[in-house]
## 1
Amino acid sequence: MRRVLKVSLAVAAIAAAAVPTAASAQYSGGQQTRPGQSTRPGQDDPQAGEQESQTRAPRIAPLRRRAAAGPCPFVKVLYDAARYVELTGDRVSASNVGFTGEIEGLVSDCAYQGDDPITVQTRILFNLGRGPQAQGDARTYRYWIAVTERNRAILAKEYFDLPVNFEGAQTATVTQDQTIFIPRATATTSGDHFEILVGFDVTPQMAEFNRSGSRFRVNAGTPATTPPPAQ
């Protein structure tokens, strides 16, 4: 699915929301000339359930390289919104997990010449899951893309629906492509003047859970498959 986000520089004058710093955006676009994907420093909370024991390579197809007169905008996943975990009850445990999601991969590329707008192509890989408390076989997740002047004002932010039908499975993988147009004030305004952030639409409680470093796998609470008996 592809949609287009167009940025108006006029929005910058009235944007009042605080912009997260680069340190808060932990995952960067793997195809740009930027540092590769990184994780938040420190250990996961041992009481948060199943933990990621090792880094997994994202299964995401690269984008076609395009010509740009300068550097591309920084494209990152906001750490606080990188995962979506529904929790029920009063205890953080795998048995209380509903629907889950994780932004598993993000690649991007851009093109601009002269004083043309910057056209940014992004590809986002989502891993989604159904925990023991998930009701039903389908869920519409929501995520957002925000364009900012780097470490300053938000220029534009748009929300996107991500409908998922698990069709009886516990997990699903979805890839979405988005196109972003960013006008430039002059021909000397380069792409690294801007930053593009991506994240799930999460509640304050979900954001705090993510911020603490706690996490579940997207298949949290799924019974392990019993291996066949030895012959």
## 2
Amino acid sequence: MSAGANPAEGAGADGVEVVREVVQRGLWFEEFEVGTLYKHRPGRTLTEADNVLFTTLTMNTQSLHLDAAWAAEQPNFGGERLMNSMHTLSTLVGLSVAQLTQGTIVANLGFSEVSFPKPVFHGDTLYGETLCVGKRESRSRPGEGIVSLEHIGRNQHGDVVAKAVRKTLMQRRPAGEGGDAE
């Protein structure tokens, strides 16, 4: 194989012929199945740097996120600063992207039922799960469908720390694409 050649056009590095290419992508509308639970791994350990950066970038000056001395004097949360809940929600959704929506989403349509049942602290690891809770074809946009996803965030102890229902507008499988997910 000549330098710079596309490995898909012949043999691989060890002379093995490429017989199939797999490109990571999210799911097409047709591939979502109501009742399926997707577990997103790896998790993401949330750090003090993440918290300070996100909090300051979004102009959220809440002392619970930024002021260690103030937080230490508060009776709740053991004197610890909390992770910004919007950072937790954003990370939870982000954990699902590669598996569910990478390159196949058209738009987020909205979030509902957002809750944070337990606090998240610096050093906690967030693990994401997504339950497909509904889907229907779009009535106004042929070739697209609406999928409802319940995102569940758990810490390293398995405690639910965040939940949200998200509606997404998803692409349907393009004509000519195979019926099986790659």
